[in-house]
Amino acid sequence: MTRSLPPLEDPPEPEPSGDLRPTDRRAVVVAALCGAVVGWFVLSVFFLTEAMVPILPWSLPVILAVVAIGVWIDARVLSRKVHDPHREVSPTEGLVSLALGKSVVLTGAALAGACIVYIITFVRQVAIPYPRQRVITGSVTAVVCVLLGLAGWVLERACRVPPDGEARHREGADPGRAGGDSQPAH
């Protein structure tokens, strides 16, 4: 007895679908609240074990600032590339930049939320040297985390592709004119 199997057929490929949207405020607020909860939990562990809460090192805001500057530079470069009709952005580059932008926005918000809880915990003891240093470094780190989130938001916005005619309009070139004359946009 032999059994014959149906021929292998490739299943039909589904049509691409999706609703990828820019990161909305609600997601940023939820990330900040999640960061605050995690920060509160970590601080609670230190207080329950009666361990000394560490002072944030100054290298943390410096490293986060360097990352924010790098993301912002990437956003500027990508924005120019997207709006230049003579240059092409590969799909991989666009997708990686979009994913990086979204993750940096949410990471910056979560870290800022954790830093705010860190600051609030010690702000009442600001007259004492160690809590004062925790408040100062925590405040600087929180500001840098907000800037990191803004850099991610700028990168996410740079991934938007303009409508077909807008790129030429921004460059000032009139596609119907010969010789490449350009007129200023009004």
Automatic annotation (TrEMBL):
> Transmembrane region positions?
27-48, 55-75, 95-123, 135-155
**Region of interest (Disordered), residue spans:** 1-21, 164-186
Alphabetic keyword roster: Membrane, Transmembrane, Transmembrane helix
Q: Which InterPro entries match?
A: DUF3180 (IPR021517)
- Pfam families for this protein: DUF3180
Basic and acidic residues composition bias: which ranges?
164-174
Q: What organism does the UniProt record list as the source?
A: Acidipropionibacterium jensenii
- The name this protein carries in UniProt is Protein of uncharacterized function (DUF3180)
